[in-house]
Amino acid sequence: MGFLDRDHTIAPPGFNRWLVPPAALAVHLCIGQAYATSVYKTALVKHFGASLTEIGVIFSIAIVMLGLSAAVMGTWVDRNGPRKAMFTSAMFWVGGFLIGSLGIFTRQLWLVYLGYGVVGGIGLGIGYISPVSTLIKWFPDRPGLATGMAIMGFGGGALIASPVSQALLKAYDPNSGAQGWVASGDAVGKLFLTLAVVYLVYMLFGAFTIKVPADGWRPAGFDPAKVKAAKLVTTENVSAKNAIKTRQFWLVWVALFCNVTAGIGILEQAAPMIQDFFRQTDGKSLVSAGVAAGFVGLLSIGNMAGRFAWSATSDLTGRKRIYMVYLGVGAVLYTILALAGSSTTILYVALAFVIISFYGGGFATVPAYLRDLFGTFQVGAIHGRLLTAWSAAGVAGPLIVNAFLDAQGKPGQLNAASYQPALLTMVALLVVGFVANLLVKPVDARFHEPRTDARHEPAMEA
Amino acid sequence: MNTVPHNGQHATVNTAPGKLAVGWALVGVPLAYGVYETLTRVAALFG
Q: N or C: which end of chain A has fewer CB within 10 A?
């Protein structure tokens, strides 16, 4: 398997760096399927005779494994390079679908937990971080744009997987035309097998297309001296082991955690929330289920677009400033949403769209923020460790929202006022994140790696 | 943007524009399809 080694992926002179983003996107578009699990959730509930919570656990395990594997495997990914990491990610992600389909066909839910949740979740974590440090090295002049392009794919993956999965479930189930149809377990099993094959092809395309730049490479016309001029952008390097000992790492961790928690608060409740906000005194909502589904789709686009647009913008504004926008402007928008969001649907939709674009932007900008603070040496491993903030927010966000809503009443009886305590709690969280981001300063020199050459780059890891 | 030449042991290989186009099409076409499908659902919001 030597062909997967980093040494075999060094780009020859003349290699066009714009081939790297599609390679990264190929992996992120595949693993982004994780956000399209709602398509077959009801079918699995019926097939296994399980509760919604028991089926929801599949997704929860996968996201927890994402954070854990990214944190644990980050150093391995940096050391072995993107090709081996993407290949490994593909094996786990596809293996997860295969084991999961076996669980569905044999009606053993634990196999789905093990397959899609544990094995697939490891593929998610490795796949998510695998192209990040490579992109940063190929685009030292536009790191935000580069990571934004890749991480946009994680948001876009669900946009593709959702309609494709619906179409395949209909094709695989002979009863798909029946009224009140719910896809059979057999159809979901076949869907898993199909996705496994397609994702294998795409992820291997990514793995065998990606290349790392040679030592000392830089883009034509790029002047590192200009980057050096920015106060928060270092030319030094900090190892992953040392990075987690710095105050900066934990301040960015808190900022990301607060931003993600606030975003998940809306995303988790998106469809019922818009209906509740416009519930009339007779208990009926002005917003139909179909319109609410459209709203969820709009948020998906906001999430994806924010990842690209805001991250690319951060190359011009600087990372700290753009995070001030995500958290500061986000807090103001959240407050308006809580206090005046029910006045018109246009205002509500516009506010939610921008808030979710900030949520996506936070994810996509953070690798470049880490590069600015800790250098490129082990930025993938540091990013992996930072993603534990995502796992924590994935638990905290829904817990906060659901706990407040449970105290306000039952689903179907809630209105805009019922959401105020939860939303204002999110505002407080965003303020905490804003302050944490404000406190970020350059990393102390005692954490820097010893310089090994004139370019201040220690042993190159991709 | 092509890369600045360096002193590595590899021969110079200029990436063919066709390869670049195929690479972007492989990811761009499904993504465009996904966005289009989502926008058709979003239309209900403004309909």
A: N
Q: Judge if A200 and A230 occupy the same domain.
A: no
Give me the domain span that covers residue A358. Answer: 224-447
Q: Note whether B29 contacts A: Cβ–Cβ < 8 A.
A: no
Total number of domains constituting chain A: 2
The verdict on A304 and A409 lying in the same domain is: yes
ipTM of the assembly? 0.84
In a domain, A338, yes or no: yes
For residues A441 and A313, membership in a common domain is answered with yes
A462 domain residue, yes or no:
no
User: CA triplet A295, A152, A391: central angle to 5 degrees?
Assistant: 85
- Establish if A260 belongs to a structural domain: yes
Would you put residue A427 in left (φ > 0), alpha (ψ -120 to 50) or beta?
alpha
CA-based nearest residue in chain B for residue A348? B45
- The pLDDT tens digits for A326-372 are 999 999 999 999 999 999 989 999 999 999 999 999 999 999 999 99
Which of B11, B33, B44 is nearest residue A294 as measured by Cβ atoms? B44
Of residues A27, A346, A356, A155, the one with CA closest to residue B35: A155
Q: How many residues does chain B have?
A: 47
